């Protein structure tokens, strides 16, 4: 196990009707709140009106930034920074999924930087202390509700890049399973892929003795795999929604990743795909991950054997063979939920593979299990076709 | 799953040589530090000198409170409060195990209360904001390094009682596996029992749908059970020490307990035993828990079957029968490590059972799986003989 620092100060408020606490929690951080939202689905389910009412009840002054899209754009971040500066906003309140939260984080980060916010993503400039962020989560997937990371896309440069800072942890995140019930089934399932993929990035690495972290990771995988089919059958089941919601947060709040090397190549590859084709992040990950796994299994066959044995209950002596069966089980699992695991199935052919491979390795080789250069990524993308 | 709030802001600094950060971390909270220590074992291993040097390097003004005993006493807490008040201490630094940390927490709690600190334990008076606490942990067991709980004994009244408050979370805890290597084997093993017992208190309850929390709990149990025999064979193995250390923290930092009813009767029974006989807490728990389990298994046979199947790999159809085998496995495990699981084996006979049962239920029935009254506790204690 490597040395690590674990410091996750986000306050999680979990459970049905926990949304009711949004007014009082927000008020702890000031008078002027910028409400950041997506493309209107929260209005359809009545959540928008509910949140606005609760904020008004606490006499908060509400400003708004709406229209955040999946693969959120830096243009809207710039707009948000302008609103916050002009109106001296005290706190950002993100009501939505990962895209909305990440937009809030990027606004917060950009606010205390003098140049253009996109510099923070391309030049890896350290982020300074900034204004607080609150969250009302509407989708189980991102993990952004309990970490300091944000991923933003720049359509001008066709880049999708991440920032990370201790100053970007939300002060509070409200996780009310009721707010996730109306998410359409396909996006619920992409969220589930996202959750599993976050686990994979941390679980499949070369660290040998982070035993508890790996058992925790298996706990999340088993819980998700057991619960997802129930949810697919009955998308309105609040208990299943609650279980998946809590899995999503724990998949990326640090507890399964501390002391581990981790990998994260598959996310870089997926970001290159969705920067070019604007597909849902979870869908891209369902396609990339199984093929990445097959490309690197020879380096850590024992880890893949653990995955096969402890998550899927596969028996057998040979780590490599058992591990391969585990990967096949994962593919079967995704396909059984109707999630495609090949690019050709979503209309992407081999035309721009070169460009994607270039983009994914723009800052140098990616990943740790194998250091992947452009040629490696190209091969993995070919396998994905 | 029940609604919950999870907010654990303690900064964990984990790994070999992380002790070197104690000076800089402490300095973040002021100039005057009260160094709280136990009965001298940290002097033998050189940790005392090291910490003092590091504090002096940051020009901190050091005051001292030493001599904290296992089952820490309220008298020393009172002495600590006096020192802090007289010298306007800025931060408490606990260097030791659970007893030392809990003494620091009780001092912090008593400081902002006008009456005698013991009132906070007996009258359940809410604790007010107070001065910060830092920790250098020397024993894997308590979990106190990452929660807001403290347990203190009063020898005048022969009581052992707990307090809990959001204001008592340590600001930082340094978990350096090297600091745990010199702990004698028997106390290392009692620490391991303590860790498992914390898991049991949260795992064995009536909450049906906290699936992830239960898989997390099983992850800790499996990791401890796999690692403990290695550690017993080679007490100087730093990797095993590190794994157990991180298990201890996660067993009581909230992640396996949130959204669950939990039980905690066994701890109350053990506290009654060690208030009268001053035995190590872990030893008492190794005796109480298996017998409590047998007393309550009929209420939640499915939970005991999960324990048997997922932790011990026991197969079988009937939950009750499989569950009983799991309890027997636990007894075998403790005995294989040389830990006694009966009172008579440590020289305690039936003379004061009545008194213990009375003490354990002083504030009313205990536990949740079964609400245990005095007669129930007496029966469990008889089973423990």
UniProtKB/TrEMBL annotation, chains A, B:
<dbReference type="InterPro" id="IPR056798">
    <property type="entry name" value="ADH_Fe_C"/>
</dbReference>
<dbReference type="GO" id="GO:0046872">
    <property type="term" value="F:metal ion binding"/>
</dbReference>
<comment type="similarity">
    <text>Belongs to the iron-containing alcohol dehydrogenase family.</text>
</comment>
<dbReference type="GO" id="GO:1990362">
    <property type="term" value="F:butanol dehydrogenase (NAD+) activity"/>
</dbReference>
<dbReference type="InterPro" id="IPR018211">
    <property type="entry name" value="ADH_Fe_CS"/>
</dbReference>
<dbReference type="InterPro" id="IPR044731">
    <property type="entry name" value="BDH-like"/>
</dbReference>
<keyword id="KW-0520">NAD</keyword>
<feature type="domain" description="Alcohol dehydrogenase iron-type/glycerol dehydrogenase GldA">
    <location>
        <begin position="9"/>
        <end position="177"/>
    </location>
</feature>
<dbReference type="GO" id="GO:1990002">
    <property type="term" value="F:methylglyoxal reductase (NADPH) (acetol producing) activity"/>
</dbReference>
<feature type="domain" description="Fe-containing alcohol dehydrogenase-like C-terminal">
    <location>
        <begin position="189"/>
        <end position="382"/>
    </location>
</feature>
<dbReference type="Pfam" id="PF25137">
    <property type="entry name" value="ADH_Fe_C"/>
</dbReference>
<dbReference type="GO" id="GO:0008106">
    <property type="term" value="F:alcohol dehydrogenase (NADP+) activity"/>
</dbReference>
<keyword id="KW-0560">Oxidoreductase</keyword>
<dbReference type="InterPro" id="IPR001670">
    <property type="entry name" value="ADH_Fe/GldA"/>
</dbReference>
<protein>
    <submittedName>
        <fullName>Iron-containing alcohol dehydrogenase</fullName>
    </submittedName>
</protein>
<dbReference type="GO" id="GO:0005829">
    <property type="term" value="C:cytosol"/>
</dbReference>
<dbReference type="Pfam" id="PF00465">
    <property type="entry name" value="Fe-ADH"/>
</dbReference>
């Amino acid at each position: 196990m490597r040395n690590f620092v674990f410091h996750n100060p986000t306050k999680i408020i979990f459970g049905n009707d926990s949304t009711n606490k949004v007014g009082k929690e927000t008020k702890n951080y000031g008078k002027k709140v910028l409400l950041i939202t997506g493309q209107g689905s929260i209005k359809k389910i009545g959540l928008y009106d509910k949140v606005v009412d609760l904020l008004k009840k606490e006499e908060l002054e509400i400003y708004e930034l709406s229209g955040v899209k999946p693969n959120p754009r830096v243009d809207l971040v710039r707009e948000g920074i302008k609103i916050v500066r002009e109106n001296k906003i005290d706190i950002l309140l993100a009501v939505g999924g990962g895209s909305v939260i990440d937009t809030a984080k990027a606004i917060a980060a950009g606010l205390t930087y003098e140049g253009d916010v996109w510099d923070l993503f391309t030049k890896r400039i350290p982020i300074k202390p900034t204004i607080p962020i609150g969250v009302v989560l509407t989708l189980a997937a991102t993990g952004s509700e309990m970490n300091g990371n944000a991923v933003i896309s720049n359509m001008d440069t066709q880049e999708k890049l991440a920032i990370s800072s201790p100053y970007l942890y939300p002060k509070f995140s409200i996780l009310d399973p009721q707010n996730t019930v109306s998410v359409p089934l396909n996006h619920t399932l992409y969220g589930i892929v996202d959750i599993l993929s976050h686990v994979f990035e941390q679980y499949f690495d070369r660290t040998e003795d982070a035993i508890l972290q790996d058992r925790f990771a298996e706990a999340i995988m088993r819980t998700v795999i057991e619960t997802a089919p129930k949810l697919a059958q009955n998308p309105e089941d609040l208990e299943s929604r609650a279980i998946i919601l809590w899995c999503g947060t724990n998949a990326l709040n640090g507890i399964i990743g501390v002391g581990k090397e981790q990998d994260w190549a598959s996310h870089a590859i997926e970001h290159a795909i969705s920067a070019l084709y604007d597909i849902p992040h979870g869908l891209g990950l369902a396609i990339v991950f199984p093929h990445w796994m097959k490309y690197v299994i020879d380096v850590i066959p024992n880890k893949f054997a653990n995955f096969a044995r402890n998550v899927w209950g596969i028996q057998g002596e040979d780590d490599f063979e058992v591990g391969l069966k585990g990967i096949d089980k994962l593919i079967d699992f995704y396909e059984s939920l109707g999630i495609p695991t090949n690019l050709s199935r979503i209309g992407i052919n081999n035309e721009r593979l070169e460009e994607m491979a270039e983009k994914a390795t723009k800052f140098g080789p990616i990943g740790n299990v194998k250091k992947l250069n452009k040629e490696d990524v190209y091969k993995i993308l070919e396998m994905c076709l």
